[in-house]
Amino acid sequence: EVRLVESGGDLVQPGGSLRLSCAASGFNFRDYNMFWVRQAPGKGLEWASSISNIGTAYYADSVKGRFTVSRDNAKNTVYLQMNSVKLEDTALYYCATSSLGSNRGQGTQVTVSS
User: How far, in Å, CA of 55 to CA of 19, rounded?
Assistant: First the structure.
């Protein structure tokens, strides 16, 4: 059974930084592309970033240059380093096995506010 557990969300001021983590279990993590998707209040799921099984990173234009995705296959964990956060980054962040949010966990809340 695929299980993804996100953590690291918090209240952060605009311009600040945060690192999200996602611990994976129940599948062969190193063989999978992994995705970060987010859902802002009142909006649908939005793909933010992804990383291939060999470590190639991809970003939505809205986060490019500010967010960095990485993975540690030895720890079955994927990370999202968020720098220079903006008010519009406020959302529930999920890791998933597809850009549509497949198998996502419970999410971790990121709130950007002054």
Answer: 18
With bands split at pLDDT 50, 70 and 90, how would you rate the model's confidence at 27?
very high
User: What's residue 22's pLDDT?
Assistant: 98
Give me the percent of the chain exceeding a pLDDT of 70. 100
Q: Which residues contact 2 (CB under 8 A, 6 or more apart)?
A: 24, 25, 26, 27, 97, 103
Distance linking the first and last C-alpha atoms of the chain: 40
